[in-house]
Amino acid sequence: MTSRRYCAAYDGLSDRRQEAREAAELLLLRGHLLSRDDRVLLQMVFDRGGTFAQISRLTGLSATTVSRRFHRILKKLMARELVALLAETKQPDPLEISIARAYFVQGLSQQDISKKLGISAYRVRLTIRGIRRLVYQNTIRRAKQ
After folding, report:
1. Over the stretch 5-61, which tens digit does the pLDDT of each residue have?
2. Which of 92, 77, 97 is nearest to 28 (CA)?
3. Do domains 1-77 and 79-145 have the same CATH topology?
4. What CATH number labels 1-77?
5. Domain spans of the chain?
6. Which of 55, 64, 123, 73 is closest to 95 using CA atoms?
7. Rounded to two decimals, what is the model's pTM?
8. Does 3.30.70 match the CATH number of domain 79-145?
9. What element of type H or E holds 1?
């Protein structure tokens, strides 16, 4: 009787580990949207399995700072707007991806994005509004299901 419970618990554990691996791979695939420093931190944790204490010794930062930076990176990569844009059935325009990266991941203002990309602030505002509309439509679609 106990062996059955153990096996069932073990199967559940392996499923969770598999889901965690898949989530880590997805985040690493989105790593190209990050700055170089953030991408390296993400790789140190997921690829090399480094702990925050180990990474803090390598970087000279405190473990708390490394932890906060890591969780901030995860939050940015899992932003609803970014997920909706990347999951869109049609291939997003490279300009849309650049604007989404600058706004939702890097946290730049719309004015700074327009200067950086050499486009009008109006174009930036329309693109961000379109991405948010996409998130809203996806939310409504899921609620109806």
Report:
1. 444 444 555 677 777 777 777 777 777 788 888 888 888 888 788 889 999 998 899
2. 77
3. yes
4. 1.10.10.10
5. 1-77, 79-145
6. 123
7. 0.66
8. no
9. none
